[in-house]
Amino acid sequence: MASSTPVPVREPVRRERIDHARTWLVVVWNDPITLMSYVVLVLRRLFGYDQETATRLMLQVHNEGRAVVATQPREQAEISVTRLHAFGLQATLARG
What we know:
The chain has helices at 36-47, 51-64, 74-86, and strands at residues 23-29, 66-73, 90-95. By secondary structure, the chain is of the alpha+beta class.
């Protein structure tokens, strides 16, 4: 016969897995052919930057040879790099 006294139940230990999906950097590289105004136009169109931000990033590309123009999840960063290539800019991914 079963006992009718309640048995205490322990709360389950919750081990939440925090998914720290690594972010990826979209890097645009300098080249000697592309006009600076064109780089600004592309950055504004693809990433929605205002004129000031796009100009600052373009100058960083021009003066330092490269600039991180976006930090995104890998799939989105790959799409961004592909779109930059379609506009004729040199771009790569780097782990964030």
